[in-house]
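Fold this sequence, please.
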Amino acid sequence: MARDGAHMTDADAIRSGLRSLDTENMHIPVIEDTRFDADTGTWTIQMRDAKTANEGQVVHVTVKDEKQVKIQGEE
């Protein structure tokens, strides 16, 4: 279920964030947090690589809230 004011669900935003260029070098992504900003219509996904012990290497990915995210294999 989408958050108030959002078109996407948390899962949709995470899926889109995992496809971003910022996460290309992550081997095992761990989602730390998801936040939706209704004023800007964007999601911020905070994640890190599970193989990285340094907590300072957290990646913040911004995802535009869209009505539908195409899932691989869907037509």
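The mean pLDDT is 83. The beta strands are 29-37, 42-49, 59-64.
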